[in-house]
Amino acid sequence: MTKKEQDRVRKILAALDREYGTDYKCYLDHESAWQLLIATILSAQCTDARVNIITKDLFQKYKTLEDFACAKQEELEQDIRTAGFYKNKAKNIIACAKRLVEVYGGEVPRALEDLTTLAGVGRKTANVIRGNVYNDPSIVVDTHVKRISNKLGFTKQQDPEKIEYELMEVLPKDHWIIYNIHIIRLGRTICTARNPKCGECFLKEYCKSVRE
Ligand code: SF4
User: 7: Cβ–Cβ under 8 A, 6 or more apart, which residues?
Assistant: First the structure.
């Protein structure tokens, strides 16, 4: 990366920190690592707001990981119905909880290689856990990160795993976790998928899609 490009990246990250602050809070409500894991499985193709409504009652009903491991598939399906893809998600949650109990002693593992052996857990979910639970530098590539990283000129890739590796080259490690949090906020408010408001965006001065 050229010095000029490094400078541009630094300015973008500084503008995001200035605008949104450097404290971060996960958008999915949870009180433990396994609750965040289940909430993240539910969040596929579903809004975080909807997931938070579902988990408010769900974690009252299923108070432990064992409760999920022993859950009846049809009953859990109904409990999470509004999350969409509920049959698959219920199946994955039960299988994931069983493996956590049987193989990992009820603990959520830290390593990407272990996390991705759990049902319903891909790189994205694994990186949510690594960043939010263990504070391990990790980049979560969701729909906002994919779209906006392309607009900012940080990547030209479309495949989430390739984007993750490119962002690891572009972003300093101390911004790997918070980048996703900031970009989600930007993507929900200003750089929306259908109608990006470039005119009022605090990144317009540095954004490649505007410059070009
Ligand atoms: S300037 Fe436009 S395209 Fe670039 S980040 Fe802002 S809203 Fe998105």
Answer: none
Give the distance (Å) from ligand 1 centre to CA of residue 198.
Answer: 5
Model confidence pLDDT, tens digit, residues 12-32: 999 999 999 998 788 899 999
Instruction: Choose the catalytic residue: 29, 48, 142, 151.
Output: 142
Amino acid found at 21:
G
The region, left, alpha or beta by phi > 0 then psi within -120 to 50, assigned to residue 21 is: left
Decide if 124 is catalytic.
Answer: yes
Name 172's Cβ contacts closer than 8 Å, sequence gap at least 6: 13
Which atom of ligand 1 lies closest to the CA of 208?
4
Q: Which residue out of 147, 151, 211 has the highest number of ligand 1 atoms within 8 Å of its CB and is therefore the one to mutate?
A: 151
Q: Can you list the residues of the chain whose pLDDT is less than 50?
A: none
Q: Decide: 209 in ligand 1 pocket, CB within 6 A.
A: yes
Reported pTM = 0.88
Structural domains in the chain plus CATH codes: 3-24+139-211 (1.10.1670.10), 33-132 (1.10.340.30)
Please give the Cα distance from 150 to 91 (Å, whole number).
34
Tokens of residue 77, six digits: 């399906």
